[in-house]
Amino acid sequence: MGEQASGGAANSDKSNKSHHEEPVERKLTVRMSGASTGDAAHHRQARDHDGHHGDGHDHDVHPLTTTAKALVTDAYGRHAAARTSGTKTQAGKSSAGKKAAVNDTPEKPTAAKKVPAKRTTTKAPAKKTAAKKAPATKATTKAVAKETTAKAAAEKAPAKKAPARKPESRTALVRRARRINRELAELYPYAHPELDFTNSFELLVATVLSAQTTDMRVNQTTPRLFAVAPTPEDMAALPPEELEELIRPTGFFRAKTKSLLGLSAALRDRFGGEVPGRLEDLVTLPGVGRKTANVVLGNAFGVPGITVDTHFGRLARRFGWTTQEDADKVEADVAAIFPKSEWTMLSHRVVFHGRRVCHSRKPACGACPIAPLCPSYGEGETDPEKARKLLKYELGGQPGQRLKPPADYPGQPAPPMAPPAAAS
Ligand code: SF4
Fold first, then answer.
1. Is the pTM of this model over 0.85?
2. Is 243 a residue whose pLDDT tops 50?
3. Is 326 a catalytic residue?
4. Is domain 1-79+171-418 given the CATH code 1.10.274.10 in the classification?
5. Separation of 403 CA from ligand 1 center, angstroms?
6. What does the pLDDT look like over 28-85, one tens digit per residue?
7. Least packed by Cβ within 10 Å: which of 17, 107, 124, 344?
């Protein structure tokens, strides 16, 4: 099975590259270039998309320019100060200004360093360089002098208050949130659960195993597990040591073994060997909380559910949909913004975006198509080129998480588990 998958992966690598990756890449490029070149068209498109803006703010999608960011800032209001100072360029300038304030002559040590270089080097090119540098030093001195004067003037003048911003109204927040959902739907029309499964029991087991590890590692582990124990009865009958060995690659294998044996026995004894389709039943199973239950309900039973994992919680906070840290409270806040019919796909889209673009430590803000709608723009890399290098999975030309992704997935499948290295 592993070899088959591998062969499929190898074959589809090529075909996917030619047929699928390109459109995704192109889409991203078009979206980003549209943001940087087609202001008027982009504004129109944004208006068409939203219909109307009845909250009195300008909600147009703007290019990722300083002006645009200011406009978007106006639209959000509540994060205005953070956004204004949060952009890399502005932050850089501000930081340079601070440095200048601390050290009145920041450039002088540099100039002093350059003089000995001139003295020790007698070749013509060195003289040329020194000649070029001389006016720069003069200019720097003037600039520093100006800056000092400006600083003194600023100190004398009463501090100007930043204009008060209107906090984002509930209506505006809901509109913006729903628009983010639509943008994400366009960006990831192929969003799906990233665990391989063929039935509700496999999905339940895979979701329990996915705690504290990647979906790819789970997908690489479960083919062997489900070959040995395809049903709750089979799994409940496994000796703990055997189950531990089978799921060891997913980490925390002793605790997970306990959960799997417990939930398999409960399914066998209390639910006739079937996974129940109700949240209140699912959460009674060992190792199953609301998150796992919602994954199973949404993807195996078609019951709408919001899955608040680490990615969803982080992005919901960055989007300003919630300020809560507790997963259940995040779920409640987000549920109040979106219609029930959107919950499951919204969860997939947000998690997709979190894994590909809006990473925990280094969000790729400069390559993020929904940046104009995000109050947290500037938390990550804003330089478009550098940001593009942070993109992951199909957006970054890397394999995805599933060994068997859906047919419309434009990236490469994940590789099967690498065989253990031969002892030397
Ligand atoms: S990458 Fe940056 S702009 Fe995009 S959603 Fe995340 S924080 Fe917002």
1. no
2. yes
3. no
4. no
5. 28
6. 443 444 333 333 334 334 333 433 333 333 333 333 333 333 333 333 343 333 343 3
7. 124
The CA-to-CA distance between both ends of the chain, in Å, stands at 27
Q: Is 218 in the pocket of ligand 1 (CB under 6 A)?
A: no
Can 17 be counted among the known catalytic residues?
no
Per-residue pLDDT at 421: 66
> How many CB atoms lie under 10 A from the CB of residue 126?
14
Query: Annotated catalytic residue: which of 60, 69, 256, 291?
Result: 291
The gap from C-alpha 369 to its chain's centroid, in whole angstroms, comes to 11
Positive or negative, the Cα torsion across 8, 344, 329, 165?
positive
Q: Is ligand 1 within 6 A of the CB of residue 362?
A: no
Give the Cα separation of 45 and 384 in Å (integer): 22
Q: Where are the domains of the chain?
A: 1-79+171-418, 108-145
Collect all residues with Cβ–Cβ distance below 8 Å to 285 and sequence separation of at least 6. 204, 262, 263, 266, 267
- Residue 72 CB–ligand 1 contact under 6 Å: no
